[in-house]
Amino acid sequence: MLSDNDHKEQNLDPSFETLKTASRADLIDAWRKAIGRPAPKHISRSLLITVLSFEQQAKQYGRPNQRFRQALERQVSGKASKPKLQSGTRFVREHHGKTHVVEVDAAGAFIWQGKSFASLSQVAKQICGYHCSGHKFFGVTK
Fold this sequence. Notes:
Pfam families: DUF2924. This is DUF2924 domain-containing protein. The protein is 46% helix and 13% strand. A hairpin with a 5-residue loop joins β2 (98-104) and β3 (110-112). It has 7 helices and 4 strands; from the N terminus they run αααααββββαα. It has 142 residues and is α+β, with helices and mostly antiparallel strands. The chain is elongated, with a radius of gyration of 26 Å. It has 2 domains: 4-77, no CATH class; 90-137, no CATH class. The chain has a 4-stranded antiparallel beta sheet, with helices on one face.
């Protein structure tokens, strides 16, 4: 376990194993030294360890570049890039007694009544007259 003197006498970069056995007070002290400000009051022990481990790795290997961080953020937020639809994929929906067919072209555009649209939502808006989710309108599920 780490003592306050250990933190003060060395510029400590605790290993993951050391962090796992450290007291909450030691983790909060390590956070202050690594991050430069006090830890949030109600932060969980596991999050303290995760952030401190990340900071240690970032110091040792460098921080991820912006492109990587943005991709990671999209994954975490659920906004990951959507899979490409195959050319020829068709969406069919009956609306007010009329059948509407939308086809995906080779460039990934949506073709409806001979016109090209960038998104299925744009097609749905043309059909129903107001903005709505194209995936919901056409009944697309994951």
